Amino acid sequence: EDECLGNHSCDTNTTSCANTFGTYECRCLHGHRRVDNFTCAAIPCGIIDIALPLNAHLPQAVQAKFEVGDRRVFTCNSGFMPSSNATEAVCIVGPLVTQPTATCE
After folding, report:
1. Are 11 and 38 within 8 A, CB to CB?
2. What is the pLDDT of residue 104?
3. pLDDT at 40
4. What is the predicted pLDDT for the residue at 46?
5. Distances (CA, A) of 81 to 36, 72, 76, 89
6. pTM (whole model) above 0.90
7. CB neighbours of 104 closer than 8 A, spacing ≥ 6?
8. Which of 34, 42, 45, 59 is the most exposed place for a label (fewest CB within 10 A)?
9. What is the side-by-side order of every strand in the sheet holding 96-98?
10. How confident is the model over 66-102, as pLDDT tens digits?
11. Maximum distance among all alpha carbons in the chain?
């Protein structure tokens, strides 16, 4: 009998249910680590290097720890303007980060 087809206690947002002989186990999804037998948590990105374009900077207040879902928006230096709205890096799941693609012109 597939224990995962019925009621199970796996957190469906962070784990997948794996049927085993007579029972089941909750396996962490990619980018997550175990919290308990039924739940996992996203791995934070930590302190990362964001590929900033020339003539850009990050405000010092946002250069600390980078958690899942956090956004880091760069600012162009005085006299420069961003080429598009793609001025942010987003922590998807440790250490996967989307990088900004705008330039400062």
Report:
1. yes
2. 92
3. 93
4. 74
5. 48, 17, 6, 18
6. no
7. 53, 54, 55, 56, 76, 77, 80, 81, 82, 83
8. 59
9. 71-73, 88-93, 96-98
10. 777 788 888 899 999 999 988 888 887 767 777 788 8
11. 67
- All residues at 6 or more sequence positions from 47 whose CB lies less than 8 Å from its CB, including other chains: 63, 64, 65, 66
Distance from C-alpha of 36 to C-alpha of 101, rounded to nearest angstrom? 38
Distance from C-alpha of 11 to C-alpha of 87, rounded to nearest angstrom: 34
Instruction: Tell how strand 88-93 and strand 96-98 pair up.
Output: antiparallel
Tell me the two tokens of residue 29: 């999804």
State pLDDT tens for residues 41-55: 888 777 666 777 889
85 vs 39: CA distance, rounded Å: 36
pLDDT of 26 strictly over 80: yes
Which residue matches tokens 């996203």? 42
